[in-house]
Design goal:
CATH class of the domain at 4-86 and 149-229 in chain B: Alpha Beta
Number of strands of chain B: 10
Strand content of chain C: under 5%
Strand order of the largest sheet of chain C: 1-2
Oligomer: heterotrimer
Helix content of chain C: over 70%
Chains: A alpha/beta (about 600), B alpha/beta (about 240), C mainly alpha (about 280)
Largest sheet of chain C: 2 strands, antiparallel
Largest sheet of chain B: 6 strands, mixed
Order of helices and strands of chain C: HHHHEEHHHHHHHHH
Strand order of the largest sheet of chain B: 6-7-8-3-9-10
Structural class of chain C: mainly alpha
Number of domains of chain C: 1
Chain lengths: ~600, ~240, ~280
Amino acid sequence: MRLGEAKRILTPRRFAWVPFVVVLVTLGLILPVYWVYLFSTVAIGALIARSIGLVTNQAGIITLCQMSFAAIGGWVVSWIALAWPAAPFPLLVLIGGAVAALVGLLVGITTARIRGVELAVVTLGFAAALDLVLRQGSFPGVGTGTPVIPTAPFDDPRWFFALTWALVILLQLGIAALSRTAHGLGWTVVRVSERAAASLGVRVGAAKASAFALGALFAGIAGGLLAGQYGLLTTAVFTPLNSMVYLVTAVLCGASLFGGAVLAGVFGVFVPELLRRVGLPLDVGNALLAIGAFDVLRRGNGGLMEQLNARLQERAFRNVRVTCELVPLPPLEPLEPIEPLPPPEPSVEVAQTSLSPHAKGAIEPPLLEVRGLTIAYGNNRALDAVDLSVYRHEVHALIGPNGAGKSTFVDALTGFLPSYGGAVHLDGDSVHGLAARERARRGIRRTFQQVQAIDSITVDEYLRLAGGSAGTERIAAVREFLGLPGGAVPIRLMDIGSRRMLEIAGALVSRPRVLLLDEPAAGLAEAESFALAERMRRIPAEFGCAVLLIEHDMGFVRAASTRATVLDDGCLISTGPVSEVLDDPSVVAAYLGQELAE
Amino acid sequence: MGGLRAEGLTVKRGDLTICRDVELVVPEGEITVLLGANGAGKTTLLDGIAGVLPATSGSIVMGDRRVDTMPVHRRASRGLAYIEQGRSVFAQLTVAQNLAVVDRSREALARAFGLFPRLADRENVRAGLLSGGEQQMLIIARALATGPRVLLVDELSLGLAPRVVRTLMETLTGLAESGMGILLVEQFAEMALRAGTTAHIMHRGQIVRSEQCKVLLKDRASLISPYYLGAELHDEGSLS
Amino acid sequence: MLDGVISGLVSGSAYAILAVCVVMLYRLVGVVNVGQAAIGALGAYVCYSFVGAGLPLGVAVLAGLAVAGLTAGFSGWVLARWFGKPSETVRLVVSVVLLIVILTVGFRLFGDSPRVMPSLLPENSFVLGGVRVSLTTVVALALAILVAVGLSLLLRHTQMGIRLEAMSERPTTVQLLGVNTLVLAIGAWATAGVISTLAMLLIAPTRNPTFETMSFLVVPALAAALLGAFSNVWIAAIAGLAIGAIEGAGARIDWLSSYRGAIPFLLVIIALIWLRRREVWDAAR
């Protein structure tokens, strides 16, 4: 897809700002005061929903305490307004938001190692505790009957309307920009899997803490605006139940998108209005929103706006290629496999010469050296003193029957196992004790058996995220190498084989030193598999990194790699050039189970 | 007419169609072997027959009833038992309790211990603490307690010592001789072929070859190796 | 102080019972049910309404238990029937939906003004070791112990209990052995609903609750369940009693008294941070 085409394609993600602002200004000017007031409340509701959209829909953390952050913002604004009535109102609101953000950051940091439902329950506990504390006193100004009056001109409802919407729009623009940076994209990975995030070099703890802090900022500003709108605040506004109702509304509307947040604000205000006019009790509205959220969850396609966005994306990209296209390459000369360095004697310095890796008998130190890797669970040895060396310019296959320990091996190398026996050295430096994220940063990159590429972002965003600090210089080269679809294509529209290639592409973009691929050809059709194998063989020369690949498809292994190591039941049974290894009778026996039959 | 017949069976795992249009017969009184490299779709096929994964098309007939429309637990009560891959014991329950999930009676316990005397010594031991072989014995005994006529077995041998595997295979042979139809999925071809009557080889979700087991045993290298160890892939992607 | 602790045991027993229900339901069907207390409250309020309408006590209690059991069973059926294999967090949001819906129904039926609930037990009390102990306290404590012990025995010694335990480990394997896990799941929900109602019936007279405040008694119960990592029934029960006792003791300390409801949260978060300090990763490969 050429660059010109990419620009012409409607990216539905770009919100229609201009018409939206025009509509807002018009409404603000023509509507009677009562309706202007309502629409200001819509803005505040949208802000709260957007905060939930960020923490829950984007970062995947269920939060039941957003109204508590709003309460903090409202409290701060009330307190300052009481002490300094002349202070400009927008400044107060921002200060309230900042204080709430600090509390949110604190919550995020203390709960760094707590996740899932436990974290959700902790947020509920926080909400209940804060609610209790607030009930003991009252909000500043209530005792003396001094409401918060926003400073001029914001005491006029139309100006207040303008302020609320201006804040909403500015904050949305800010968060949208942040969501496109590597840090913001980190949120979407953390949502999918913390392992995947770490293997991409994302700091999981920082991502969670920042999501909480920013969500609290939004909610705190909303609370401050509520102080200005209501004048006198009560705890009834900020109950845990209200947090829950906002949660289900945000889920229903799909508040990770601005449109969804606005829709949530609209529902929050106009569903009760409608019920009031029809004569039904107002709390029925909560139940309706909750049931709506149930239906949305059942379908599993995201909230209303998210579904709409998905459909628009499908339409926009209907005639655009969304798969990886691997064109056949001219055949390569078969490479000579590299002779391994003889095992080092402890007291002798081994000379290291850098000869061309294509020369037969070349001696060079391995890039990745594993010695005596052992993993035992009680009596069960998953891996037993496995040695393996991967050289700088080779593609090395790790094969063996099911259950032989291959994936466990990669887990140990990349830091996903808490402990193991033996030593792993990358270019002479030990990686012992380094966390997964640190190993990824040092250049050991991996892919997973279950594809971890993320649905909600585009190809380019994923590559930028995976590239991390290595930057964007390689993206064009990798895109061409693996025949990726255009950068604006949403990953959601890609099939699983293409997503697998994208995952490999992401690893390549990060300038790895060694690439560990876990079944890269799984799910690929025969022809694609062959094309991928051809490319795999060229990776060391084109991208300067070594490849260790786990595969079951032996045709792929023959076409892609130069050397192979065979594991059986946790033990190394053969290593050497691929054709020799695959013809070795003991390897054949291991696969066919001949030993068992004896 | 016992046994099981699957026709035109297509099974998806998530969005990916793994098995396409598979036709397979598991006659009673025999062991039918299903071979293939990892990723060929053997487990998916078994999951589809048992109902763990829905079959998007095709039919499964047991005896004279179609079972593909039944939920999982109904198929079990119609005589289909499935021994899943990996050892699926209830680790926190004792041996006796594992059996009790199916049948609490002393007769059921006695039958299980009669078949596997080793288990009698471990009656009140938590299943998670048993050895691999003992766990597999427990799983077989537990499946048999449902009184099946067709047994699906997925990779019995995984992680077990050869001697243990041989014992278990003898048990399966005995069961087949008493009239049960067994579909045995194995990664390790040799041992399965020695016990089986008919073999099917799966590759990329389809059955590519069906043959008598003794024929395959005689010529194993040239018949089986391409599907396990691959061969040179040509440009058109055909296997040599 | 001691009499504060003792008086807190009624609440503590209710928290313990609710916590045990939450843990059981999580272990058996994988849902952290934030609506657990709301179901119990529904049953309790139905019972009180019937008592107020003049029905005999026994019939009213049975009616309340039946309503709670049916509501809970229906919820379990809906969750099992309408969802494939949702993630834990999706299930949590669904239980939030359940809570909101029940609160709406409760609000419609019973209003939101605090009521004085009739005690179903006589107001006797006696002195034990210098401390006044009410009959309600004894009954509540006995019920909490009975529930914890009873459920443990049920799970270990009846076939249904063994099947439920097996279900919590490997639900698919249980189905493959011919067991209808849907019926079991509904039964587990209904039982939890009935037991929660008993807990609510005991605790309600000691406070002046609204339907909403009763439903949010789930929060200390969740704190107790959280300490047991949602898997250990006994830790959850003991933690529930402890939380009640601490609240009761706190009521006697002037400066702490109004804030004592926040203590469980603080304790739980400190405990969790300590317990989870070594954990690194989330779900599997």
